[in-house]
Amino acid sequence: MGNFNYILIAIAVAVGPAVRVYLGRRNSKRYSVSTEGAVRVRAPRFPLIAVIILAPVGIALNVVGVFCLWFSIQAWIYSQDTSLFSYEDTAWVFLLALMSLAGGIFLSSLSYLMIMSLKNEYVETGIDYVEKRGRLGKVTRVFFKKFPVRL
After folding, report:
1. Which secondary-structure segment (H or E) carries 140?
2. Where are the alpha helices (DSSP H) in the chain?
3. What is the structure's pLDDT at 146?
4. 39-42 sheet: strands from edge to edge
């Protein structure tokens, strides 16, 4: 079974770049030139695949965290009957609740930031300028006239 993992890793290493090249070529056919001669190219959307996984996992961790927190508080409040729960069990459930809430908040926030950062990111090339809109909305435009041409 141990060699099977190495085979899967080799397949992933071989197929991964081929898929990226194929998707990049397919997306490059969509770029068109405007009437002013500018071409706007958007950032690749590959990181958004991670958002599809991270957002539901983060929400599920938050739900598990809230349930475990509620369960541990109820067990602590009604702890007179020690035949059902002990303080040690309640402490482990409370720690699980804190860890899952922290992980859920982190993954949900990360997926939200990834969506917002990739939403409007692009590079535009015109006749005499290059414009880039960064992850946080900062637009940088550099004109070609500022640089002397040396042959």
Report:
1. strand 139-143
2. 2-28, 47-77, 87-119
3. 65
4. 39-42, 122-125, 129-133, 139-143
> For residues 140 and 131, is the Cβ–Cβ distance under 8 A?
yes
User: Would you state the pLDDT for residue 34?
Assistant: 66
Decide: 141 and 105 in contact? Cβ < 8 Å.
no
Q: Could you tell me the two tokens for 116? A: 């917002």
Neighbours of 149 (CB within 10 A): 6
Give me the long-range contacts of 35-38 (CB less than 8 A, separation at least 24). 36/126, 36/127, 37/126, 37/127, 38/124, 38/125, 38/126, 38/127
């397949």: which residue's tokens? 11
CB neighbours of 151 closer than 8 A, spacing ≥ 6? none
Q: DSSP letter for 29, please.
A: T
pTM: 0.56
Q: Which burial class, exposed, middle or buried, applies to 111 when counting CB atoms under 10 A from its CB (0-12, 13-18, 19+)?
A: buried
Q: Return d(Cα 63, Cα 52) in angstroms, integer.
A: 18
Q: Six-digit token pair at 145?
A: 């006239």
pLDDT higher than 80, residue 83: no
- 123 beta partners: 41, 132
**In this predicted model, what pLDDT tens digit does every residue of 50-65 receive, in sequence order?**
888 888 999 999 999 9
